[in-house]
Amino acid sequence: MTTIKSILNEQVGNALCRVSSIEQCKANVITASRPEFGDYQANGIMKVAKRLKQSPRELAAAVVTFLEKKNISLVESYEIAGPGFINIRLNNSELISRANVFLNNPELLVSKTSYPKTIVVDYSSPNLAKEMHVGHLRGTIIGDSLVRILERSGHNIIRQNHVGDWGTQFGMLIAYLQEIQKSKENNLPRQLLDLEHFYRAAKSRFDSDKNFADESRRSVVKLQSGDTESNKLWAQFIEESLSHCDAIYDKLNVTLKREDLDAESRYNNQLSEVVRILEQKNLITISDEAKVIFLPNFVGKDGNILPVIIQKSDGGYLYSTTDLAAIKFRSAELKADRSLYVVDARQSLHFDQVFSVAKAAGIASKKISLEHIAYGTMMGNDGKPFKTRSGDIVKLTELLDEAIKRAYELVTAKNPALDKELRKVIAEKVGIASVKYADLSKNRTSDYIFEWSTMLSFEGNTAPYLMYAYARIKSILKKPEAQNFTANISSLNEIEERLLLVKILQLSEVIQIVAEDCYPNQLCNYLYELAGLFMKFYEACPILKSEERIRNSRLALVSLTAETLNQGLDLLGIETLEQM
Predict the structure, then answer these.
(1) Are 562 and 524 a contacting pair, CB within 8 Å?
(2) Which of 93, 179, 236, 407 could be cross-linked to 431 through a Cys-Cys bond (beta carbons 3.0 to 4.6 Å apart)?
(3) What CATH number is attached to the domain comprising 36?
(4) How many CB atoms sit inside 10 A of residue 163's CB?
């Protein structure tokens, strides 16, 4: 179903074109900030009036006259406000009609795009030499929320988990694996249970033992040249690493699967071809025996052009080369319209340079939009990147276990009479949801402070608050007086009913914005406002004690609110509970 905002943008835009004689005018319709300003507001008049050198209010009056003659059933009234805004109030019967369609067809709450695209989303992307740590959290959950939203909007989504499974560190790990296999205490499965410990032990040997370091370098050469034994050990380590990742994804309720892997190693045989293309385009310069590209639009603080290193002097390749090969694949093979890279903001220069090189070399197709979906850093209370008290990087699995533990203590304190096993189930969902929502509710480009007490609070814009609001709404529908009600909204007599319903009908509009701009916090803000409006409705409008027709109508509104909250949270990757 077409959204209300889309209809208003089209109708007001067309009217503005007709009265101004200017083609393709934008109405710039937004949701009203306050109820007294109506439900929506058209702000595009001033720009057109300025172009025509005409009074904005006079132009707005002409637009309103044109619209009133059209008698659009969705609109009850127009009002000119301020310098030339048009406040729009919607027709109650039209609102009710739309709501009842959604009650019977809840899958229509989020409308499908009229222009589906093939969109590649590159997210999570851990380095398989180590276990996933807190630095991987934001990219994983922001990326997963975006793929859920884009997929639900009707786009063809290709998940790409561009894992780091290639490079010099794997020579070191292979050499260490070989040492363990030769030792008397060979218990490789146990050794690999803690990948972080295994990596540190190998790195310690590499830094302290020259012979081991030399053997590690030889192992890299063997691996890259296709040596059978080296590749066998490498595959064993990769499999163990992926098992650790799978466990994290399962715990986080993330939709990444093994088939979504887009490992760096898949491009190993294509890197020389990338260099050949760049050389053909005369983009390569030899600098200190390395192959680099100098683009004039990337200048350092010293005024010198910043190089993009494509191939080192020893013949080795870099992330930039692999990323160019991936762009080539996503353009030529996957035929992508958009390619989103959900990666730390500190990699902004890298992606700006790689995207520019890809376009200059014709590696990127003309239609593909390359977009870095940058995110900030998760900080501790000290304002520094989140770490353990000893200064170590926090393993992601340990952070999630701590969240579940704290949630269990919270649930037990609030409802100690609950069955223990049920408390465990609730704690797991609340704990994981709290960590995810605390991140998703922040503007992704900003750093944020990781604070347990805030994210696990039942007050404010948090997962526990929204999950509790959903559980409370569902509890109303389980009351004996609510059974077998007629799922049909028939009246909007109170302002609280109307405000709640208008907000529900705006879910699809918010989803469209997030699908385009990739800021999930906008959906979080919407859901928080929706829950707040429901509480005002609940306090102001008797539900179960009303006469039958009103009771049925309000129960239908309650049911639609629950469905909207549930779908919205699901698009964030958060599971709801009907009891807390």
Answers:
(1) no
(2) 407
(3) 3.30.1360.70
(4) 21
Residue 223 has pLDDT above 60, yes or no: yes
Strand partners, 86: 42, 80
Task: Give CA angle at 285 (282, 287), nearest 5°.
Answer: 175
Question: The tokens of 491 are what?
Answer: 């009246």
Residue whose pair of structure tokens reads 């699967």 in the numeric block = 257
Q: Is residue 355 a contact partner of residue 343, using CB atoms and an 8 Å limit? A: no
Q: Is the pTM of this model over 0.85?
A: yes
Phi, psi torsion values for 392, nearest 5 degrees: -80, 155
Q: Is the pLDDT of residue 269 over 70?
A: yes
Domain boundary among 34, 55, 90: 90
- The per-residue b/e assignment along 176-213, b for 16 or more CB within 10 angstroms, e otherwise, is bbeebeeeeeeeeeebbeebbebbeebbebbeeeeebb
Q: Which of 464, 402, 400, 465 is nearest to 432 (CA)?
A: 400
Range of the domain at 64: 4-90
3-state secondary structure 413-452: HHCCCCCHHHHHHHHHHHHHHHHHHHHHCCCCCCCEECCH
Range with lowest mean pLDDT among 158-172, 186-200, 369-383, 500-514: 186-200
Give the Cα separation of 195 and 210 in Å (integer): 23
Amino acid 178: pLDDT:
86
Tens digits of per-residue pLDDT, 546-576? 999 999 999 999 999 999 999 999 999 999 9
Residue with tokens 């809840």: 106
**Six-digit token string for 179:** 């040492």
- Domains contained in the chain, number: 2
**Would you say residue 265 lies in a domain?**
no
3-state helix, strand and coil shares in percent for the chain, rounded to the nearest 5? 55, 15, 30
Q: How confident is the model at residue 302 (pLDDT cuts 50, 70, 90)?
A: confident
| Sign of the torsion formed by the C-alpha atoms of 240, 245, 246 and 247 | positive
**Distance of alpha carbon 102 from alpha carbon 502, whole angstroms:** 13
By CB atoms closer than 10 A (0-12, 13-18, 19+), residue 34 is exposed
Q: Which residues pair with 369 in a beta bridge?
A: 338
Q: Which two tokens stand for residue 89?
A: 């109030």
